[in-house]
């Protein structure tokens, strides 16, 4: 379980407090108006933003002071998720060995992961030779091979078309959640939340609410969500 | 605990680079300040040198800019075959060894040059190129192309829509668009060239001399080499430093341009172009002025290349060694500093711009002289000084590239746990090949052609190619000098081309 314990995040005059827990092996959608702090929360969990106060914990491990690379957390950003000068297999391999000194086993694992996301035989392609959807699949393959139980998705599929985005969300569900990862994803589209995640948490008015079942949240939206949905 | 937003790299390389730059700039300055004979004060010859230095720099900058304006204007609004090639050539003088250009100019304007041949056939007395007008001529040859590039950039930065709007209003383009642009671009161009001309030792060495045409740097050189009056040399070096700092402070406020900028292949579409003949005349004259001296080098050098004395080849080998060493050191320092980023780095990065090679050289001479024979470390000191003087240019192209990579991929690398050497090896180096190759080529070519520090330090057996060429010219062995010039210019451009080419091939962006 990922626990945000009385976490307070501050950036200039902006402030966000979170006192919530994310169940292991589940997917949670963070929904709320833009500027509410969804990405800020992810940045704090990933270790890019030190909290003003409070603690962050994964099971029994305190993450609060850990460097981003040491945390049990993978993150996909809005863009630049692949290194353009590295091949698909190398980009996946970074999830196994950040220094990219891959042995034969590692390479086999990367190839299997690429096959797993529907890119069999794409190992030696570079990102510029891949479509946007294929690039997202490579990034997902890297998350898949990394030995990190928490996955943060900061709208990595926002630039894709609607059909492709749905395809990716289904892939996340079929692969990452099936592999037992804890997925926290940012979205401002209620349809995404309903498609992907069993749980959703509202981020609004400087506060992260506790995750509840997505249906429940949308069937009976609190005032802040109602205002956002319009 | 807050975490850095970019992967951590080792601290010592940038610290070492900063220390080297500080030692060579402030350290050498300290040495000259300490050794300077302040009591002696300034002799009238020294005042004359200061006056001449400022005067020739003012005249050179003024003429370069005035001549550049019509050329830039013509290039901005005419499209013709070879235009792009000509614009590329305008970047060449930056890499051209000064001494080579001087020899080329002598072949045209010198005592036995083409111009005097023509004058003699007309029964007119020959003219002498040496002195103020020679120095200014050489400076204009070097800096007019630079000015053209700056001003052309200004012209092309006026949005096409404005020309269209002005045309539809039938408004005066000159007063509405061109004059305001020139008022913004010309002063900074003038100051950059003024600064360059304050510290161009090699031109003064070859074209100047005598009591009426001695720059401060030339006086330093003479004090060290001929009079061995180190106290006076140090005093003059302090004066040169003050001149440079004043010039740099002025230029720093008004510049930010890239001296070898690209993107000049656009032509402004215009509706007010009645007389193309004037523009084409200007372009042809400028091209002749720039190309003829180079053509003379090739013409006179080619037959001599194969029967040059052995010492020229030995000097060439030494020069290549110095150039490669200096380029390697320069890009290592630039990379280390660029990886660090921040204010300290930008300060360290611009300090060499205010340094004059001769001041640094004098300081280094004073520092090593008590312990070692300066000639023994001539090549090493030359490598260090050349690398440091080229550092601002390398940083200017590498630092933004590294900063961009940090911004684009820093968080991804951090979250993947890519750190230290892996970050440099896997991400930075493959992604900065282009600016890296370009900077290495620039540093190598600048060092290859440098005739500054080496002239202070070297004896006969430490000669680099430019110095060997200068000594051949001094001995009136013009044939061998022309051969050496051809070799020098070929090596300079080859080094630049190879490095730049390496950066361009297989660079996946």
From TrEMBL, chain A:
Q: Which SMART domains match?
A: AAA
Q: Keywords for this entry? A: ATP-binding, Cell inner membrane, Cell membrane, Membrane, Nucleotide-binding, Translocase, Transport
Q: ABC transporter domain location, by residue?
A: 2-230
Task: Classify the source by domain of life.
Answer: Bacteria
Q: Name one GO molecular function term.
A: ATP binding
PROSITE patterns, per the entry: ABC_TRANSPORTER_1, ABC_TRANSPORTER_2
Query: Which PANTHER family does the record cross-reference, listed alphabetically?
Result: SPERMIDINE/PUTRESCINE IMPORT ATP-BINDING PROTEIN POTA (PTHR42781), THIAMINE IMPORT ATP-BINDING PROTEIN THIQ (PTHR42781:SF1)
Please identify the protein, giving its name as recorded. Thiamine transport system ATP-binding protein
- Specify the species: Yoonia maricola
Automatic annotation (TrEMBL), chain B:
Q: By its UniProt entry, which PROSITE patterns does this protein fall under?
A: ABC_TM1
Membrane topology of the entry: Multi-pass membrane protein
Q: Which Gene3D superfamilies match?
A: MetI-like (1.10.3720.10)
Q: Which GO terms describe its cellular component?
A: plasma membrane
Protein name per the record: Thiamine transport system permease protein
Q: Which GO terms describe its biological process?
A: transmembrane transport
The organism of origin for this protein: Yoonia maricola
Q: Which segments constitute the ABC transmembrane type-1 domain?
A: 50-499
Recite the UniProt keywords alphabetically.
Cell membrane, Membrane, Transmembrane, Transmembrane helix, Transport
Localization: Cell membrane
For this UniProt entry, what is the primary localization, expressed as one broad class?
membrane
Which domain of life, per UniProt? Bacteria
């Amino acid at each position: 379980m990922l626990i945000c314990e009385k976490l307070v995040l501050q950036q200039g005059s902006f402030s966000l407090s979170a006192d919530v827990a994310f169940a292991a092996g589940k997917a949670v959608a963070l929904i709320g108006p833009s500027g509410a702090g969804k990405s800020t929360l992810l940045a704090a969990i990933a270790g890019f933003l030190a909290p003003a106060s409070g603690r962050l914990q994964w099971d029994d491990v305190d993450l609060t002071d850990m460097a981003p690379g040491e945390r049990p957390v993978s993150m996909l950003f809005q863009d630049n998720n692949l290194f353009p000068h590295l091949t698909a297999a190398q980009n996946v391999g970074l999830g196994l060995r950040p220094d990219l000194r891959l042995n034969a086993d590692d390479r086999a694992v990367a190839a299997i992961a690429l096959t797993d996301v529907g890119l069999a035989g794409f190992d030696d392609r570079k990102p510029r030779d891949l479509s946007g959807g294929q690039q997202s699949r490579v990034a997902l393959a890297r998350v898949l091979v990394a030995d990190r139980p928490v996955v943060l998705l900061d709208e990595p599929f926002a630039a894709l078309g609607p059909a492709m985005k749905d395809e990716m969300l289904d892939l996340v569900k079929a692969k990452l959640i099936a592999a037992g990862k804890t997925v926290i994803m940012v979205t401002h589209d209620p349809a995404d939340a309903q498609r992907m995640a069993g749980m959703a948490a509202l981020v609004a008015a400087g506060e992260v609410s506790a995750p509840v079942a997505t249906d429940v949240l949308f069937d009976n939206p609190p005032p802040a969500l109602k205002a956002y949905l319009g | 605990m807050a975490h850095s937003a970019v992967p951590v790299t080792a601290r010592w390389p940038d610290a070492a680079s900063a220390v080297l730059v500080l030692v060579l700039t402030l350290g050498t300055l300290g040495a000259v300040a300490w050794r300077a004979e302040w009591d002696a004060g300034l002799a009238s010859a020294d005042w004359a040198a200061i006056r001449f230095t400022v005067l020739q720099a003012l005249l050179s900058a003024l003429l370069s800019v005035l001549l550049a304006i019509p050329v830039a204007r013509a290039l901005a609004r005419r499209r013709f075959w070879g235009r792009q090639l000509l614009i590329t050539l305008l970047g060449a003088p930056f890499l051209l060894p000064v001494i080579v250009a001087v020899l080329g100019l002598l072949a045209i304007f010198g005592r036995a040059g083409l111009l005097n041949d023509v004058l003699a056939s007309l029964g007119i007395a020959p003219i002498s190129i040496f002195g103020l007008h020679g120095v200014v001529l050489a400076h204009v040859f070097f800096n007019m192309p630079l000015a053209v590039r700056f001003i052309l950039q200004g012209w092309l930065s006026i949005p096409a829509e404005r020309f269209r709007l002005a045309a539809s209003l039938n408004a005066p383009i000159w007063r509405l668009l061109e004059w305001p642009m020139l008022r913004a671009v010309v002063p900074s161009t003038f100051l950059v060239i003024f600064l360059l001309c304050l510290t161009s030792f090699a031109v003064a060495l070859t074209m100047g001399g005598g009591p009426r045409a001695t720059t401060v740097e030339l006086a330093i050189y003479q004090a060290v080499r001929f009079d061995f009056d180190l106290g006076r040399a140090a005093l003059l070096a302090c004066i040169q430093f003050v001149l440079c700092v004043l010039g740099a402070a002025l230029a720093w406020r008004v510049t930010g341009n890239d001296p070898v900028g690209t993107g000049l292949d656009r032509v402004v579409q215009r509706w007010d172009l009645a007389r193309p003949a004037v523009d084409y005349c200007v372009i042809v004259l400028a091209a002749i002025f720039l190309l003829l001296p180079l053509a003379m080098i090739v013409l006179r050098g080619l037959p001599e290349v194969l029967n040059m004395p052995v010492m020229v080849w030995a000097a060439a080998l030494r020069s290549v060694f110095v150039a490669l060493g200096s380029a390697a050191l320069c890009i290592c320092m630039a990379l280390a500093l660029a990886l660090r980023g921040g204010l300290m780095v930008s300060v360290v990065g611009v300090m060499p711009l205010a340094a004059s090679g001769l001041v640094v050289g004098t300081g280094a001479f004073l520092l090593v002289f008590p312990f070692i024979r300066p000639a023994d470390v001539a090549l090493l000191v030359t490598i260090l000084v050349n690398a440091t003087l080229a550092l601002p240019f390398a940083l200017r192209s590498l630092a933004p590239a590294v900063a961009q990579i940090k911004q684009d991929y820093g968080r991804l690398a951090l979250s993947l746990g890519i750190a230290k050497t892996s970050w440099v090896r896997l991400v930075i180096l493959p992604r900065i090949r282009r600016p890296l190759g370009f900077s290495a080529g620039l540093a190598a070519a600048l060092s290859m052609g440098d005739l500054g520090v080496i002239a202070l330090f070297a004896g006969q057996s430490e000669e680099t190619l430019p110095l060997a060429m200068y000594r051949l010219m001094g001995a009136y062995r013009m044939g061998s000098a022309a051969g050496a010039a051809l070799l020098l210019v070929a090596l300079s451009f080859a080094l630049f081309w190879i490095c730049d080419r390496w950066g361009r091939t297989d660079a996946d962006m």
